[in-house]
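Example with several molecule types.
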Amino acid sequence: MEEIRIKNAFPTQETAEQRGTWTELGDYFRRQSIWMLMYCTGCCAIELPQAMTTVYDMERLGMGPMATPRQADVLLITGYLSLKTLRRLIYSYEQMSEPKYIAAFGPCVLNGGIYHDSHAVLNRLDDYLPVDVYVGGCMPNPESVMNGFVDLMNLIKDGKATGWKRYRDNHEWYRANQIAAVGEVFVHDEFHE
Amino acid sequence: MREIKLFLGPQHPGMHGNTSVHMYVEGDIIVKSYLLPGMLHRGFEKGMENRTWVNNLALIPRICVVEPDINEMVFAMGIETLTGMEVPERAHYIRMIILELARISIHLMAYGGIGGPTGHYTMMYHAQADRNTILDIFEKITGHRIYHQYIVPGGVRKDFPKGIEKDIVDFLDDLASRYTEHRDLGIDNPTIKKRLDHHIMLPESVVWELGVTGVGMRSSVNKPYDLRKVTPYARYSEIDFHVPTSDYSDATCRVDIKLQEVVQCIGIIKQCLAKMPEGPVRTKLEGNGLRWKVPKGQVYSAVESSRGEFGYFIVSDGGTKPYRIAVRGASFPQGLLGVEKYLPGQRMDDAALWFDTMGVCSPEIDR
Amino acid sequence: MMNSMSNIELVKDLKARYKIINADVVRDTQIAVDVTNGDVHSVLAYLKSQGWRQLSILTNIDWIDDGEYQLVYIIFNWDNPIWVQVRTRIDRDNAKFPTITSVYPGAKYYERDVHEFFGVEFEGNPEALQQLFLEGWDDMPPLRKDFDAKAYSDKKYSKREYTTDFNTKEDEK
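Resulting structure tokens for the full complex:
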């Protein structure tokens, strides 16, 4: 996997891009109304109902839940990922319309976390999908989650949350990594075939 | 009419956890269906064999995510049977208080979870607001909101902080005074009654065929088959409480039994706080904890969780690491064989509601 | 149906009817018996007729030093609350055993689970040969003792490299 690593797919420092005036204005307003896709992929999702409801209200930041990927802005990857989930997650991510962002929770997507020696859990996510914000903690409490969302909003305003552009420009590299891990990105209906 | 293939996929607003159901639908009625588990599979049983007995305390709460205290309780009970350790009196009562608070919090979460499939999100808001107070109480006692690592072999890790009894009693009185408000919003509401009454039945022959335990069994067999009464563990034999049962098992009845169990839990916690003696809370392990050995043996220990009988089968060969631990998830019967045989025949809008009222929790099926 | 028996009486009753290799009283609410392969079906059917109607778990232990698997069936009776562990040993390299879904229909998915993680074939349960929890698995059954999960994880999943080494001393086993 080291041979096919393309250098510009991994910027070590997020740089602010050249944006036109209309795009900058759009980003300034877009950050106040982010819709998150309802997909609980792992354990850290248990604190999301607390962040959504009356005590730590997420809606005062302008965020709310959305059922379909076509109309959602941010995909929250809450916790560890197994290979089976990654296949379905790639479907959901590619169905979202641009601009789209990813926020990842927990140490399990950074370096494997407590499941680093497991045969079924991935050890790092940014080889397969581009991540904009990481939130730390096992599990992160709702105040950390809200802090992560505010950081994402600031990155959008400054034009630094460009994961979707990286995915679009380096699509062959990401696809090659996905196929090397997952085999094929297709959900078989093995019970009915 | 033609049959159409549908995925009630992992990404769905009404789905609990990360599983998916493949089904064939004809018109509005489900004809065939299979559950597709395995997306939350982390290889726990292999991971537990590579860590020492004390290191495993960090890994086991993560098996059942919504109610982690039952994992620690079953692990501690199994080890105490194999080694013959004595647990102090005060620790028994503290363990019962923690388990009953966890039971209240997950019954509230399941009650609010009806809001997703039916679209009545206000129920979820009220239930999660009450659950948040319980999580704050847990943070004051143990240090973390969800994964406590508090019940250890030999007792509990440390004693209650001063003044926590007043917080617990204030919260319980507040919840008891809002009981009718929760009921009026939820199952006494005519719109929700139309969705739940006489739907999703569970007859008695199905209970014995699948091996369903917990609220599903008690709501159709009409006997108090609850592990806290039948084989009492900790000090449940000294507490006075009642186990609600019924013999007509539709969705309303099962939700109603859960609310009555919450009222019983409030009574149990108050009696425990009154009866708790003073004293030590932990028997320390001999020698170095990281080189501690458990004698040879095979034991199965189980507790009554909110979904049924939850147990671990622990095999030890006398070493510093477990030889094999097998996990019995409480929702394994109704999640796998129940979806294959008894979900067909329901309407498509009831599919997501089926998972909530039958009590299916996906992390403990996948381990 | 028998009225309540204590655990010692239950062990005596089973010993009188079947050939028991070894019997253990684990706790006041739990006993364990080791039986031969051919007796498993009749012991389970007899106990079910006496009220042990619930199958709690069906699982397997890998004794790699003896070259054998040990299948364990744990059943429970709500009116006479005693857990009974019924255990038997089968050969590890050619692991086959008849199914018990005629006695306990709920065992269908437990047998599928044991097949996927250990490789035991259950005759009479043809659906047990399909994959359930893993998808596209390409190695030996994962819960066997000769499968190294950490080596598999290092080989297949890419890891994050750090420039500072955080280990100060080697861990002792």
